[in-house]
Each structure stands twice: as structure tokens, then as C-alpha cells.
Amino acid sequence: MTRCVILGSGGHGRAVAGLAQLIQGLDVVGVLDEFAGSKGEKVSGIPVVGIYADLPILLREGIDSVLIAVGNNTRRASLFQMAQDLGADLPSLCHPSAVVEPSATIGKGSYIGAMSYVGVEANVRNGVLVNTRVSIDHECQIDDFVSIAPASTIAGRSRIEVNACVGMGCSIADRVNVGASTIVGAGAVVLSDIPANAFAVGIPAKVKARAKFEP
């Protein structure tokens, strides 16, 4: 049995806690949160036992693994680095209803949500958040700390670069590149490359501004 702790008690924290309890061999002993005032609350039935700064203590006490459960890409990357520097194992979670092709690869600390699909030779890297009913087709590259909101579709051989955020219900055509730290607004249809640090919306998607907030 692998003893683990969850970092994050928000909406995504609840999703991770719920999924972790479905996976045999995981014993989730508690949740750590950013705020001390959350201690004693429960996240999908799992108690908040401390703050992020308590992680080194828990690791010394025999916690094996850390599940990063923060939706904000930048904050998720920071927590991932902290846990990695402390020597923690960072397993990925895949919902039992998701389909991951045998030739696909999933990095450390990623989350593959319910009814999602990761296609042939796709590469989902570290700390990636793949929400419910996302389709990532063949040979796609999803870089570190990307988040893909529910019901989005990414066609074959496309790439989503580090820290980018794909909004709910987006469609990204084949062989398209979405740049680093770019935000693609909900419902957008992306037919051509989007540069880094952009905010793109519409059908077809057009760059409206530089991204002005953290994804």
C-alpha cells in the first residue's frame, strides 16, 4: 500500500481526492492546504492535516507519494518542484474510465480525468491536468504544467507548450502549435498556430491580447 498526501483542497483537490480513493493500492492519509485555517476540514472525505510547509515532516514520517491537486498551472509547477526537490514520488492518476493507448506516455504528477482519451504515441508530460472528456489524439505533445479543460479535443500531431491553458470545449485542429503560457478561451476553434503568451478566442480562434493573468 502506497501512503500518499494531496497538495490542494480546492475544486481540483476534490477531484484528485475522489479519484485517488478509486485506485487500489493508494492510502491517502491527508490533504495539505495553503492556509492554516483549513486544518480539520474534509476534502471528499479526506481530512486537511496541515499546510504545504508541513510536507517535509510528513515525508520523514513515512509518506511515500505526493499528489499535486492545484488547478493553477504556475502554482502547480511550484508545488511539483518543491515535492520533487524533497525526493517525493509524484505518481500520475488516471481515471478508470479513461483510455490511454499502450504507446502513449504520461509523465510524473499528471491527472487524466474521467472518460478522457490519450491517443497512440501521444506524450503527456509532467504536471499536466487533463480534465473530464478530453480527447488528445495520436502523436500529440502536451508539455509540462498544461491544463486542458473539460470536453476539449486536440487533433493529431498538435503541440500544447508549457504552462498553456486550453479552455472548456475547445477544438484544436491537427498539426497546430499553441505557445507557452497562452490561454485559449472556452469554445474556441484553433485552426492555426497561436504564439506564446497570447489570449485567443473565437471561431476561428484569433489572438485578442497578451495573456494578462496566470492560467
From TrEMBL:
Keywords: Transferase. Residues 5-82 form the PglD N-terminal domain. Substrate binds at residue 71. This is Hexapeptide transferase. The active site is at residue 138. The record marks 139 as: Increases basicity of active site His. The keyword Protein biosynthesis does not apply. Gene3D superfamilies: 3.40.50.20, Hexapeptide repeat proteins. The keyword Repressor does not apply. It comes from Actibacterium pelagium. InterPro entries: AcTrfase_PglD-like, PglD_N, Trans_hexapeptide_repeat, Trimer_LpxA-like_sf. Belongs to the transferase hexapeptide repeat family. The gene is perB. One of its GO terms (molecular function) is transferase activity.
